[in-house]
Inverse folding.
């Protein structure tokens, strides 16, 4: 698969620049996928057991260091590469990360997001804001890995194509950064329509086979869709940042489940 990435890296990078995302089928081997699923299932189960009936709100500010409820029924448990027992720089997606963020790219976060049956679609949001009024190259990139087959019924990620170039609150004064970041019900791709950009970004979502990966720019408008299946949807994620960039909205809680 590494050879396939090298062979098609130019077209993948062009799609990342123009669309803000690219989906790669069967990027991870069955062995790697099984390992990620096994580790994440064990850690997530232990954390949920530790959480018990403690109160937890929506979003990282209302969560714990060990678990965040991103939206009702959608749980995010951080897991380090060391806990996953992998060298993330040896993973099949690493060449793409360095091609976008440079050889000095740094691991920011990783973990698993589990969407329970019946969980509703998220509100549209971005994961981090633009840094300047002019459009700069990506400062952070995310990799989502399907740990099982994810049909449309199970609610894969939906993205607004090209919106990473249009979510810039520093260039568009009608946009409020907190509204973009913190899942407001009235946030949608339609709010990106301006006198200059007169069309609403096209939205895309695709089923994912086990081991497939979705790579996307941190600034793109996206959301997890509703899980209408009877099984929990599990996606492992690895987020990377340009050296020196300081992310601040992913895990904001200062409390821990392990505090007395």
């Amino acid at each position: 698969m590494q050879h396939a990435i090298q062979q098609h890296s130019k077209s993948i990078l062009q799609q990342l620049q123009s669309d803000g995302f690219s989906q790669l089928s069967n990027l991870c081997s069955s062995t790697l996928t099984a390992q990620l699923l096994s580790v994440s299932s064990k850690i997530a189960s232990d954390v949920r057991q530790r959480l018990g009936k403690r109160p937890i709100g929506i979003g990282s500010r209302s969560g714990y260091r060990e678990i965040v409820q991103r939206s009702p029924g959608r749980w995010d448990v951080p897991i380090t590469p060391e806990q996953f027992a992998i060298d993330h720089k040896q993973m099949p997606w690493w060449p793409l990360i360095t091609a976008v963020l440079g050889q000095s790219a740094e691991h920011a976060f990783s973990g698993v997001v589990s969407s329970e049956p019946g969980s509703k679609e998220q509100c549209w949001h971005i994961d981090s804001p633009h840094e300047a009024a002019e459009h700069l190259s990506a400062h952070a990139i995310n990799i989502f890995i399907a740990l099982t087959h994810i049909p449309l019924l199970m609610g894969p990620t939906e993205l607004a194509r090209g919106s990473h170039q249009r979510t810039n609150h520093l260039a568009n004064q009608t946009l409020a950064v907190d509204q973009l970041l913190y899942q407001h019900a009235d946030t949608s791709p339609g709010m990106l329509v301006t006198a200059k950009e007169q069309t609403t970004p096209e939205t895309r979502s695709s089923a994912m086979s086990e081991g497939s990966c979705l790579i996307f720019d941190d600034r793109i408008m996206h959301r997890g869709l509703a899980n209408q299946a009877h099984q929990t949807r599990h996606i492992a994620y690895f987020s990377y940042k340009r050296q020196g960039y300081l992310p601040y909205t992913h895990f904001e809680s200062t409390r821990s489940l392990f505090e007395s």
